[in-house]
Amino acid sequence: MRNQMLCDGDEDDALRMRWALVCSVSDGNMLNTLSDFAVWFLAEVSKVASKMNIYAKFENRPKAVLHVPVGNFDACSTAYEDIRKNWPAVMFVLHILPKKSSAEYEWMRMLSTVHGFIRQGVLLDNALDKFSTVVSNGEDIDSVYRNVAQWIARATSRLCLDKNSTYKPYDLRVGSGKVLPNNVKFDQDAIQTAVHIVLSSTGNLPHLYREEFAVRVTGFPPSLNEFGVAQLFHGLKVTGVSLKIDSAIVTFTTKFLALQACALDSKKIDRIHTLHVEPLFAEIKEQLDKTELRMC
C-alpha cells in the first residue's frame, strides 16, 4: 500500500521552489531517513548553484513524501498524479530510485513530462550513504551538484519558455484566444497582474506591483533570470522580479526592505559587474538622502 507523509505548515518563500519526494523503496519505514537526505541534498545543490549564478533554491521541507512499492507502475503513476492534484504548487520532484537502470527511472521521466514537473532521480544506495561511495571511487561530489543545478536550470527554462506543449502540459491562458500580431508587446507587470486577478478572483492590486515597495536594478550579469536577480538580495523578502532589456524591477514585501535593498547600491558582484539599485518611490529617495544608507 502506498503511504504518504504530509509536510505542510512550513513558511513559504515566494521564490523558493516547492518540491515533493517520491520513494520507490521496499521499506516504507525509510521515509524519514530519505526525507532528511533529500533536504540535505537539495541544500548542497543550492550552494553550488549559487556559485554558478543559477537560481536553484528550494523550500526547507518537501510538500509531501510518498512511498510507492518497487516495480509497481500503477502506484508510481498515482503518486505523481496525487502530487499534481493535491499540491499544485509543486514544480520539482526528487525520486529515490531502487537501483541503477530500474524501470522507475523511465517512469520518472515519463510521468514528470506528463504532469509538468522538473525531476531528478537519486539511487537509493547514494541516498543512504550521502554519496560517500561515489566520493571513495574518486568522483568529485561537487560535479554531481553542478550537473543537477545545470539540469534544473535547463528544465526550468524549457518548462517556462518552450513552445512545444510536450514539455509544458499546463498553461494559464488569459483572453479570447484570438491570434494577435507578432509585433504586439505586453508589459510583464501587466501580464502578471492579469494572472493574479484570474487566480484570486479579485481586482485588488497585489503588493507585487506596488511602487513604494520596489527598486530599479542595473549592472547585474545579463545571464541572470528573474530568480538569479532575486538572489542578489539574499535575506530580503522578494515578492517579484520583472526583467527589462538592461534592468529589472524588484519588489519587496515592505518599504523598509526596499530601503534596505538600496544599501547594496555599488556592490561589486564580480570583477566585471557592479550592482546599482535605485528606489522608485519618492519617500524612499528622501529617506536615503537623510540616512546616507548607500554603501560606498
Question: Quick one: CATH class of the largest domain?
Answer: Alpha Beta
Major β-sheet profile = 5 strands, mixed
Assembly context of the chains: single chain
Catalogue the unreliable spans.
8-12, 202-208
C-alpha termini separation: 61 Å
**The CATH architecture of the largest domain:** 3-Layer(aba) Sandwich
Reading side by side through the largest sheet, how are the strands ordered? Answer: 1-3-2-4-5
Supply the CATH superfamily name of the largest domain: Response regulator
Mean pLDDT: 82
Tell me the helix content: 25-40%
Q: Features of this protein?
A:
single chain, 296 residues, alpha/beta, Rossmann fold, Alpha-Beta Plaits, 2 domains, 5-stranded mixed sheet, 4-stranded antiparallel sheet, RBD_domain_sf, nucleic acid binding
Topology of helices and strands:
Layout: E1 3-6, E2 19-24, H1 31-51, E3 64-68, H2 73-86, E4 92-97, H3 103-115, E5 118-123, H4 124-128, H5 132-136, H6 141-161, H7 188-200, E6 214-218, H8 226-231, E7 238-243, E8 248-252, H9 255-261, E9 276-279, H10 282-291
Parallel strand pairs: 2-3, 2-4, 4-5
Antiparallel strand pairs: 1-3, 6-8, 6-9, 7-8
